[in-house]
Design goal:
By secondary structure, this protein is an alpha/beta fold. It is built from 17 helices and 26 strands. The chain is globular.
Amino acid sequence: MIQSASSLAGVIERAAFNHPDGVAIVDDSGSVTFAQLQARVRTTAILLDQILGASERVAVIGPNHRIWIELYYGVPASNRTLVFLNHRLHARELLSMIERSAVSIVLGDADELNRLRAAGCELPHFDWDTWADLIDGITSPVSSKSSDIAKGKAASRAPAWLLFTSGTTAAPKGAMLTSENILASVNTSAAARPVEQDEIYVFPFPLCHIAGYNVVHRHAHSLPVVLLSSFTADGFCDIVQRERVTSTSLAATMLASLIDLLEREPYRKVQLQSLRAIAYGAAPMPVSLLRKANELLDVEFAQGYGMTELAGNAVFLNAQAHRNGLESNPHILEAAGVAAPGVEVRLVSEEGNAVTEGDAGEIIIRGPQVMIGYLNDPAATDAAVRDGWLYTGDIGRMVDGLLYVVDRKKDIIITGGENVSSLEVESAVLEHPGIARAAVIGVPDPVWGENVCAVVVLRAGALVETKELVTFVRQSLSGFKVPRHVVIVEELPVTASGKVVKAELRRFLLQRPELLGERL
């Protein structure tokens, strides 16, 4: 264990006690010390007590901002739940999430709040500047409850964060994570992938993703987090040089963008001289991209396998394994890694029996970081969590102690680090009057990991242009969910019960890549 805090706010209390002048956050506005962040977290909890009833939920939306991080800690410190909203989603999707989670107020970026209001959201809302002014207006903690906040006594088994995650159904499910879950995930990562005591970490992902647990991880070590408002390869190079960054986490798309920039502008390698380590996850990493990165960058690589329901990563492929894979055993680079200390991983058959080494089975994981359940969805919770084991829906094999993820049972497509439900896209495609049947699958892409591909059967006599279909779907779905390839076929392969055999479709398109055409 790297820390003894019993709550998320306790992480900041501990860091502020030990290193009050240590830097906690760095962004384009400057830096924030742990003592300053501690004060903001306490005040956030007090302000929420003043304007909300007990246990009401708080939603946050918008690109990365330091107030996001204050809310990470401050909302749970008030014994309330922080609801993460992804600003890349369609307004209609966001309104559904707000309604389902019974949110009372929404905080965030002014443009995003205006978008929600225009779509019909009537909840009280506060943009970043307004919220900051309200926080600054509180000069003295007055409630007895504030002393409990200062001591980090927020309930560890109440939902602290609520994140919506794509699943096998069209409607995303709200994964409920407690402080205990998140801190367990932090400790898991600390044990499997130790950080250096002089580490300066840049966080390039959206803070609305579970990847944000990496922020808590660094703060639990009393280390700074450099916050990117959004990722661009040149902006990444600039901030690494400016802040002398030593480590980061990147998705495959981010690493591909960085490598492209270094090949076009090789002088930028000088900007990355301080960088020592790159961790990756969130989407499949093409081995060819990893090899190219190894040629251009003098860094160590590490991988993490996890998901929202695990509050972060649980299986890791460390730097030594990467060195081994890059030097002499390339098959290792295709592995997810080994279970971290304190985490149990098993592979089971459809009947729930353990499979033998080398055979495929569903990956199930047990440990204190497993979520407490899905919001208002006992059936989905019972299906996903059984006797403490999280049934991930991913199919894997265990070979020589290494876990290999070979398929996604849930048919989730991961494109650019974003999860896309195939059924959700199929539903949108089938709204087109010219489409009779549709199956949506992921097809490999060297930059995005996977692209969304719609394989469709037209109605008799219908004429549908592929670009027209893409434009149609874009009216109801977020951009990253829109198909980038459309393949028209006469019929779909189905089982006797009428279920589409997507594995057969994938094999067919892998053998006939010319049918995909260029990315739309």
